[in-house]
Amino acid sequence: MATIPAFTTSKLFRVYNHYRVTVGIILLASLYLQSDASISQTFAPYYFKIAAFSYAAVHVFTAFLLLAGIQPAVRHIVFSIFLEVGLVTAMMLFGTGISGGLGNMLVISVAASNIMLRSQLGLLIAAIASLFVMGQEIYLLLNASSNIDSVFRAGVLGVVYFATALLVRNLSHRISASEDLARRRAQNIEELERLNHQIIQRMLTGIIVTNEFGQVRMANQAAMSLLGLEASEDIDLLPEDLMERLRDWQLDPGRKSPPFRGSSNRAPIQANFAMLQKEEGQDILIFLEDTGKIAQQAQQLKLASLGRLTAGIAHEIRNPLGAASHAAQLLLESEDLNQPDRQMTEIILRHAKRMNGIIENVLELSRGKSSTPEMIDLNEWLKSYINDYTAGGAISADIEIRLEKQGVHGRFDASHLHQILNNLIANGLRYSSAQTGYPWVGIVVGEIDDSHQAFLDILDNGPGIDNDQMPHLFEPFYTTDKKGTGLGLYLSKELCEANQAQLDCFKRDEGGSRFRITFPHPKRTT
């Protein structure tokens, strides 16, 4: 059986009591507007006035209780309606009986009780109203103030009470069932809305909903993070770089937007646009992708292809190269070898060693070892790393560590970070020594204020990198050192991307270069 919520019952009772107050006021007004001769025609004029005053007073008092904030329970409503039926019956008894028309008021009382209660109590009230009306009419008949016709009309009115109760009760149950269905659907919609909001906020893809003028309606946490904004910060308009790409897309929807940087410390962002149709107007849905993840996926494909290639290289080149290198070493041991031939043999060995280094680096890439990131205390980890590095033969090198903040943590594969720093520090020491005659490298540990991402800066005092060299710096086999393989920086870049980190190079104002490793956001685990 459908039930009605307590709040709705209370609200309906308040409305119904307003009606009863209005009726009571009209009854009192009619007493003063009617002549004494009209009132004297009633069975008991004095008691009729008392019943009318009581009817108005009881319901005005009830109205004040409701205004005071009292919430009526079911028993209060039942008692109030029983009292109302009694007072109306009393007015009929002390008045002119069924012929006065007051019995029709109980039709509304029965209907209202069945709307508010929607239970067997509604039928009980209809039965009591019928009995009261019949009883008072029989009493008047016994006192010669009524007739058989009036008693019959009272019986018909009792049937009307029951018919009203059954009809209204049936309609109320249908309305209540519809209300329950609407309420459940509303709850489901609210739950789905909360679920969708939570899913959107937890997505790693940045999502922004904006109108055609770039006014932001909604942005999830990933979008705010990619744009370099705090999650609690309000964003009303799109950033200028993103707004420029939105305008280009509006002019040519088939055009792919170039990546842009939300901030200098983050990987480039790829923006994609889609139209979001509404009943009135249209919004634009913007998807922001971190190209660091895209680069990581591309790197896995590259490593897979490179692995198949290097398997053939190792078989076809490495064995003959090892034989040639071994033969050159045996040739150097000959006592009959003159000085020019000895120099030529040393050149063969040196270049064979360089070729072997290239093959080793390519094989390292081809192995495609997946990263196993862990949270690293960079301050403590660097102290241990520098001790190991200097103990390995670079004791004369000056490696200076500067901590901008204590307790900086970054998520990275420790073995990969070890390999990256080996490359960057070795390059820095070599170029600093060539430029100044003193092998110096500085390491700065810090944290980006707005995103709380850790970073490592590797500084050197070398000649720096020319603007025309900068675009090719991380390309494989690109090198400005005749003795280099051109794979060190490329390998470092690939390892950073495998850990969702970013490796960038900048010029220092005081001369030299600055390589920055920007660690992924500490909350990102995938």
Explain what you see:
- The chain has 14 helices and 12 strands.
- It has 4 domains: 183 residues, no CATH class; 90 residues, PAS domain (Beta-Lactamase); 74 residues; 145 residues, Histidine kinase-like ATPase, C-terminal domain (Heat Shock Protein 90), CATH 3.30.565.
- A hairpin with a 6-residue loop joins strand 3 and strand 4.
- The chain is rod-shaped and about 160 Å long.
- Helix 4 runs antiparallel to helix 5 and helix 5 packs antiparallel against helix 6.
- The chain has 526 residues and is α+β, with helices and mostly antiparallel strands.
> What composes the largest sheet?
5 strands, antiparallel
Query: What is the total number of structural domains?
Result: 4
> Structural class of the helices, strands and pairings?
alpha+beta
Coarse morphology: rod-shaped
Fraction of residues in H or I helices: 55-70%
Low-confidence region ranges: none
* SS element count, helices: 14
The overall pLDDT, averaged over residues, is 81
Strand order of the largest sheet: 2-1-5-4-3
Radius of gyration: 46 Å
Taking the alpha carbons of the first and last residues, their distance comes to 51 Å
Tell me the number of strands: 12
DSSP strand (E) fraction? Answer: 5-15%
Oligomer class:
single chain
Give the topology string: H per helix, E per strand: HHHHHHHEEHHEEEHHEHEEHEEHEE
